[in-house]
Amino acid sequence: MTISSGTTLGGRYVLRSLLAVGGMGEVWRGEDTELDRPVAVKVLKEGAAANETFLKRFRNEAKNAAGLAHENIAQVYDYGDQEGTAYLVMELVEGEPLSTILERERTLDEARLVRIIMQTARGLDVAHDAGVMHRDIKPGNLLVAHGDAVRITDFGVSRSMDQTTLTQTGMVMGTAQYLAPELALGKPATPASDVYALGIIAFEAVVGKRPFTAATAVDIAIAHVNEAVPPLPATVSPDLAQLIKELLEKNPRKRPRTAGELIERLGSLTLREPGTVPSAPTAASAPRGEAASTSDGARTRRGGGRTMPPSIAPREYRPRPDGPPRGRSARSVGQ
């Protein structure tokens, strides 16, 4: 079947303009004529549709993503097949991939980075609770809309706990630059594997480049397994640097094991003000841990460090006027 602007799928989804082209398919801006709303339509390429493995992955993406309802996950509306062309109808996110933002800006300020990682972790927490591992978290699969609202997309290589594997033993799935060491070794994905990918994104966002580069995808995967993570610059806040270091542990048991655990860590970070540099301690320095309030409600430590302001910290971690921060239940975050 020939796909072009004006093509109608399923009797209701009219394709308007091409948004993106990937290895397996194309993503079109479209219109749902029955509900009169814009949609994104992912169409499997003709060659991929003829490949049974690709087709099963496409169906898995529809099944896995359709079962996840959260503000930080791009919603899937429908799935169909017309004249041998499989298509997936999704929420249209008016934004741009994080990869485009990083290409343009090189680095992000720490508060913005934490905000983006926090929202991504919230979406992953819901997916993991449902038994779905994304397995391909990378900047290109994080759509950033107005106000830095994040939507996770492309569950094309995701795997639910109740699905049989579509790969041979030892086969690697995912994008090499963001691949957890255990996945590079052909081991099963866990929540900690998606958490590792967030560590790579965080490293890239504060340094301006990824920690591991090489001539081929295989060499990059080997580097994830064997090479030490390069040191972060001294301009990175100590708390954030320590968290990134833990996210990139080779052993998944040494990382925050779940997205929920990562959310808790992010909520308690002390960040350095943009443009400040670390200062050497002096005799007049305040005692370790002493803090003072700022005009925006944040808590600032001597030397320029600051805890996360209320505008960034999720509500459940904001200080209560009469007691300690609120606790967090397994399903309360992001709701």
TrEMBL record:
Residues 13-271 form the Protein kinase domain. It comes from the Bacteria. GO terms for biological process: negative regulation of fatty acid biosynthetic process. Pfam families: Pkinase. SUPFAM superfamilies: Protein kinase-like (PK-like). Its EC number is 2.7.11.1. InterPro entries: Kinase-like_dom_sf, Prot_kinase_dom, Ser/Thr_kinase_AS. Residues 315-325 have a biased composition (Basic and acidic residues). SMART domains: S_TKc. It is an enzyme of class 2 (transferase). Residues 265-335 are annotated as: Disordered. GO terms for molecular function: ATP binding; protein serine/threonine kinase activity. Coiled coil: none annotated. It catalyses: L-threonyl-[protein] + ATP = O-phospho-L-threonyl-[protein] + ADP + H(+); L-seryl-[protein] + ATP = O-phospho-L-seryl-[protein] + ADP + H(+). Keywords: ATP-binding, Kinase, Nucleotide-binding, Serine/threonine-protein kinase, Transferase. Residues 274-287 have a biased composition (Low complexity). This is non-specific serine/threonine protein kinase. It comes from Demequina activiva.
